[in-house]
């Protein structure tokens, strides 16, 4: 994926990753990187002889990128390393002359098409050391950001089509732990690192079994109902689009799946995602505490009417969300879908000095999102996507409870 397009997806999804400074010795770090590289190449990406593997990351992740490249070589593949930096990213967002935006986007799309056509596997590592501050500064310039989103909107459908038709396998690696996530959590870096590593190396076979059970219910389901103690009461319809089990390895047969989400692996991983019938969402949503870039989002309240997000209010941080979504016209504000977390080693952290840490993959996490859902087979063609974590959610599919008070029901997770 070209540099500009990779940044595009990272920025608009507000799911950015960075590396924290590790307290381990370089020898310990090297051993861990070697172990992780083998896990990624042999199991997660399942690299075969003769395959081309793109590896993208930042300067601080270069040792891990090299370790992965070495393992790709040992597997008989051909690694291609792509480096991205904060300085060049800032230049793109802030200094590229407006009259050249369309030309730059066209070139980016062409490069992305070439890479997707050439790469059997794409592995994305954390790119920036402090993305909250970096992307927050970009979004703060609302006029410039709106022009960027408008430019991207023209080619978004083509880009989404290329990702879905490429048959490339994707690996999104969120390790080493991100400095932004460490800061949000209020935990010390060593404890946070330990939690993330346990989440990377936990029992994914058990999660995969639970994921398949949930996928089966979602694939056959008609209506989803979500409630929370904070006051969320939301209903929406499923559209018969296949749910994606996103874990540490691809599901059987997924390497040839039409939708890119079903060809995606994340580490740490463990969740099930599905695109809803966009216009069906109806009801109230209350998000007691979250964040938007580096801004705390407190007591956010809004409604969905015929799938459209309306009446957004928040005690603080609301301007960040409204500015972000306002930079791109609808369907940026249309309901996109649902994610259910399965990883027992990941825990949300609501206390401490930070903004809170709320990983999508945490067991029992229920996350809804608006905006782009095309990788799951949805129809929201837009550069924007914004997630909302629902604390202690209860989720039902056709009256059957899958998650109660933030916990996946045992009879669901243990089903085969």
Structure overview:
- The protein has 2 domains: 3-200, Thermophilic metalloprotease (M29) (Thermophilic metalloprotease-like, 3-Layer(aba) Sandwich), CATH 3.40.1830.10; 204-413, no CATH class.
- With 416 residues, the protein is an alpha+beta fold.
- It has helices spanning 3-13, 26-44, 62-74, 86-95, 101-118, 131-140, 142-165, 179-185, 189-201, 204-220, 318-326, 410-413; strands spanning 52-58, 78-84, 121-124, 169-173, 223-227, 233-237, 244-246, 264-267, 271-275, 282-292, 295-305, 308-313, 335-341, 366-371, 385-390, 394-397, 400-404, 407-408.
- The longest helix is centred in the middle third of the chain and has 24 residues, at 142-165.
- 37% of the residues lie in helices and 25% in strands.
Mean pLDDT: 90
Largest sheet: 8 strands, antiparallel
Helix content: 25-40%
Count of helices?
12
β-sheet strand percentage: 15-25%
Please provide the ordered H/E string of secondary-structure elements.
HHEHEHHEHHEHHHEEEEEEEEHEEEEEEH
- Please tell me how large the radius of gyration is: 20 Å
Q: Major sheet: order of its strands?
A: 12-11-10-6-5-16-17-18
Secondary structure layout plus pairing:
Layout: H1 3-13, H2 26-44, E1 52-58, H3 62-74, E2 78-84, H4 86-95, H5 101-118, E3 121-124, H6 131-140, H7 142-165, E4 169-173, H8 179-185, H9 189-201, H10 204-220, E5 223-227, E6 233-237, E7 244-246, E8 264-267, E9 271-275, E10 282-292, E11 295-305, E12 308-313, H11 318-326, E13 335-341, E14 366-371, E15 385-390, E16 394-397, E17 400-404, E18 407-408, H12 410-413
Helix pairs in contact: 2-3, 5-7
